[in-house]
Amino acid sequence: MQFSANLPAYAVRNGDHLYFNLPGGLDDLLNLQASKRENPFYIEKPIRQIFLYEIALPAGWEPVLLPASSRTELPAGAGWVEISVSVKDGHIRILQQAQLNSSIIPSNEYDKLLDLNDLLTAPAAQAILLRKL
Description:
- The protein is mainly beta and about 130 residues long.
- The chain has one domain: Jelly Rolls, CATH 2.60.120.1130.
- The protein has one helix and ten strands.
- The chain has one helix spanning about 110-120, and strands at about 10-15, 15-20, 40-45, 45-55, 60-65, 70-75, 80-90, 90-100, 105, 125-130.
- It has a four-stranded antiparallel β-sheet with strand order 1-2-10-5, with no helix packed on it. A four-stranded antiparallel β-sheet has the order 4-8-7-6, with no helix packed on it. Strands 3-9 form a two-stranded antiparallel ribbon.
- The protein is elongated, with a radius of gyration of 17 Å.
């Protein structure tokens, strides 16, 4: 499935800065309910998600804050999550990809899922700040 949107008035301007948050994304990928786990974490079926954001920079503006690029391998062969961010030719391109495999993650590896969840749900994972040149 592919979805495209053109949101011309999506950002908030404050003086020489313009900021907005990415809509949607991988923030609900793991849907973790607890900060501790005594039993293994079960991923029932494979999940493949891809979000591509292409943002045209307004003339005379530059990015100051963007989500960080990262790649995380999940324990127990449960898959991976990758975020790549680039700025080129007046566009910001952010690609978020996740491949989760059916798996059972031991409870002693649950902290790795928490770290990934924290990364995906943090405000910095979705915030973009631009500055007027």
